[in-house]
Amino acid sequence: MRILIVEDSAVLRDSLAQGLREAGYAVDAVADGKRGLIHAQTTDYDVIVLDWMLPEMDGITVLARLREKRIAAAVLMLTARDTLDDKVRGLGAGADDYLVKPFAFKELIARVQSLTRRRHGERSPTITVGPLTIDTSAKVARMRRSGDAMVPVDLTPREYALLEYLGARAGTPVSRAELEEHLYDDRSQVFSNAIDSAVAALRGKLDAAGGGGCPALIHTRRKVGYVLKDGAP
Question: 120 near 169, Cβ under 8 Å?
Answer without folding.
Answer: yes
